[in-house]
Each structure stands twice: as structure tokens, then as C-alpha cells.
């Protein structure tokens, strides 16, 4: 499941039928996990015949989950497939863990590990109800973009909070005696640092605005009626996934002691990702002429802030 690729089925693919079947197989797997766990929750042990029946039922449930995942053809979009694959993998791994726990636990009583593993399978099986079921790949891409936006928003807020004038960025995590003299430059931002970091904050805010605008454009104009449209949505989701790690790397390099060259490098990486997102959005069907204004504005904002970062760090090269 983790590495295999579903093929294109011979029969016409019906998304509602797929979701029904996937939901049913996840539900059956959850029930089999409960049966298996209860059978080994107290003495006496199940008979050899009962064990054989239990293991057969578990295996059949897992094979059914994997089989239904393989119904989902590539043409439905890689973003949707990745979400379904991750949910399916979690169910299979959860059942493996439960089985291992039962094999390695004493049978005198229900162990805490067994309870946690059983709950883990239930939780994994419930994930199917959270999967985006809207218009094919479009709903999956909307969900992926919204998740990225949430992470970037948190990173921007955290850095804004740390940069409040006069605040010690390490005040909440380090005691005075650990650092000795509080005037240590390693724990504070200089005025030059703050000037550089304000441009980095500009890039981080541009990341948030970029994801917000792309998400709104996909919701307003995104379609999944043709292979080309599906592929364009997937491209947007793939490149947007690179924004959050790039924002995190930049944020980490902004904490004192600031190495201006490391900051410049991480800022350039983020700027490059943002330019790619904007370029892909601009050339896709989600950006009709009415959306071109914000693409142009954000491209300018990224360039402006990156040029300021370059100016502040020029003397370090």
C-alpha cells in the first residue's frame, strides 16, 4: 500500500461507490480489531481453531481495505490518492501494532499497551470520515492547501510574538542561571538583526497571503473535469506543500545568535518556492484574468522583501 501504485481500472470508476466501499472496509476492520482485542483480554486463551478464525478475519479485513484503495485510479489526482493512501497505511500499521502487542503481552489481564493499540486502530479507521469527498481531486487539494495555511499562520504568529520590541526570545524557555550574563548577544537581537528580520517577516507574511489567495482561487475556480485540470490542481498542492517547511527553516534561522548568511540562504529558498507557487497558479485554470492582480502584487512583494534581505546581508558575503 505504501509504495504501490493503483492502476487504471477497466470498469468505469464511480467515486460514490468507492467511498461507500472504503467506509465499509474501514468499519469492518475496526470491528475485527475489537474482536481480536477482546479475545485476548482475559484467560482462557482462544482455542487453536478460534485463533485461526480470528486471524483469517483480520487478514481478510485488511486485504479488503487495500483492495478498495487500489480501485482509486491515478487519473483521479495524486493529492486525493495520497490522502487515501496515508489513511489506508495507518489502518494497516495500526493492526500490525495491535497484533504485535497481543503476541508480546501476558494474558492475565488487558494491558495498557493493548488498550492504546486497539484505540489506535479505531482512530485510524475513523479517519475515513474526515477524507475530503467533494468534487474529485478539488476537495483534496482544498484540504491540503488549508492544512498548509494553518501551519504557516501559526509560524507567522509565533515569530511576530517573539519579535515584540524588547522581548527576550528565550525568556519562556531558559532560566537566567543557565545563560549567565543576560547581556549575552547570543540571546538577544541587535538593531541590525531586527532590520534584517523585518524583511524576513515580510516574506513569511507573503507566504500566508499567497496560500490564502491560492486557496480562495481553487475554491472559486478549481475544476476537476479533465486530466489537465486535475494535474494543475495537483501541481499547486505539491508546490504549496514546500512552503511550510521553507517558512519553518527561515524562522529557525531568525533566532539569536543570527547568522546573516544562513538567514539570506533560507529567505532565498522561501522566495524561490513562493515565486514557483505564483507562477504555477498564474498559468493554471484557477487564475482567470480577474485573479491576475493579486498574483502580480504578491510577486512584487516577494521580490521587494528578498531585495531588502540581500541589501542587509551584502556586507557579509
UniProtKB/TrEMBL annotation:
Under Gene3D superfamilies, the record lists:
I/LWEQ domain, Talin, central domain
Q: State the protein's name.
A: CCDB1 protein
Q: Which GO terms describe its cellular component?
A: cytoplasm; nucleus
Keywords for this protein? Cell cycle, Cytoplasm, Nucleus
Classification via PANTHER family: CYCLIN D1-BINDING PROTEIN 1 (PTHR15492), CYCLIN-D1-BINDING PROTEIN 1 (PTHR15492:SF1)
Q: Which organism is it from?
A: Regulus satrapa
Protein family membership: Belongs to the CCNDBP1 family.
Concerning Pfam families, the annotation shows: GCIP_C, GCIP_N
Which segments constitute the Cyclin-D1-binding protein 1-like C-terminal domain?
Answer: 175-279
Lineage at the top is: Eukaryota, Metazoa, Chordata, Craniata, Vertebrata
| Cyclin-D1-binding protein 1-like N-terminal domain segment(s) | 22-163
Q: Where in the cell is it found?
A: Cytoplasm; Nucleus
Q: Output the InterPro entries linked to this UniProt entry.
A: GCIP-like, GCIP-like_N, GCIP_C
Amino acid at each position: 500500500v505504501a509504495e504501490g501504485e493503483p492502476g487504471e481500472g477497466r470498469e468505469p470508476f464511480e467515486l460514490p461507490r468507492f467511498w461507500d466501499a472504503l467506509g465499509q472496509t474501514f468499519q469492518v476492520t475496526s470491528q475485527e480489531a475489537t474482536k481480536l482485542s477482546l479475545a485476548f483480554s482475559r484467560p482462557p486463551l482462544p482455542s487453536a481453531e478460534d485463533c485461526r478464525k480470528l486471524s483469517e478475519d483480520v487478514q481478510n479485513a485488511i486485504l479488503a481495505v487495500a483492495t478498495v484503495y487500489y480501485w482509486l485510479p491515478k487519473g483521479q489526482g495524486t493529492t486525493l490518492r495520497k490522502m487515501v493512501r496515508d489513511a489506508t497505511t495507518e489502518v494497516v500499521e495500526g493492526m500490525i501494532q495491535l497484533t504485535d502487542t497481543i503476541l508480546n503481552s501476558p494474558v492475565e489481564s488487558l494491558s495498557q499497551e493493548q488498550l492504546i493499540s486497539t484505540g489506535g486502530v479505531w482512530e485510524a479507521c475513523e479517519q475515513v470520515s474526515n477524507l475530503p469527498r467533494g468534487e474529485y481531486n478539488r476537495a483534496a487539494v482544498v484540504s491540503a492547501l488549508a492544512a498548509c495555511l494553518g501551519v504557516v499562520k501559526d509560524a507567522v504568529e509565533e515569530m511576530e510574538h517573539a519579535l515584540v520590541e524588547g522581548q527576550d526570545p528565550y525568556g519562556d524557555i531558559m532560566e537566567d542561571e543557565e545563560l549567565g550574563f543576560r547581556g549575552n548577544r547570543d540571546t538577544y537581537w541587535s538593531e541590525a538583526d531586527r532590520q534584517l528580520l523585518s524583511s524576513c517577516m515580510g516574506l513569511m507574511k507573503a507566504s500566508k497571503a499567497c496560500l490564502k489567495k491560492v486557496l480562495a482561487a481553487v475554491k472559486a475556480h478549481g475544476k476537476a473535469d479533465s486530466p489537465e485540470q486535475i494535474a494543475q490542481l495537483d501541481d499547486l498542492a505539491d508546490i504549496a506543500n514546500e512552503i511550510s517547511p521553507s517558512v519553518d527553516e527561515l524562522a529557525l534561522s531568525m533566532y539569536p545568535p543570527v547568522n546573516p548568511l544562513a538567514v539570506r540562504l533560507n529567505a532565498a529558498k522561501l522566495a524561490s518556492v513562493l515565486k514557483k507557487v505564483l507562477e504555477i497558479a498564474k498559468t493554471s485554470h484557477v487564475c482567470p484574468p480577474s485573479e491576475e492582480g493579486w498574483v502580480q502584487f504578491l510577486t512584487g512583494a516577494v521580490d521587494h522583501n528578498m531585495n531588502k534581505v540581500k541589501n542587509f546581508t551584502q556586507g557579509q558575503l
